[in-house]
Amino acid sequence: MAALRLLVLDPGTDGGHCPAVFVDGTTGDLLFQGSHVTCEGVLAEVDGLSRIGPDEIVGRIPARMRGALLRALMEADDADAGTEGLR
Asked: In this structure, are strands 20-24 and 4-9 parallel, antiparallel, or unpaired?
């Protein structure tokens, strides 16, 4: 099981069904919780730029999370840089 850590939660959340980004402490992979994109036009556009695999979905994270996400990623990178010699 992955050791997930909450990286950033939607700052505009009401506490339920919150868009969020997590980091897997074992692999460093990012996991996104957000709205599942079902609009065929958007999916076709995404697929034209980067093929959507049969086991993949397209998720949406609100624009209001960009700043918080960037800050959280930079902080995570800084924290990881201090532990690279330990891996």
From this structure: antiparallel
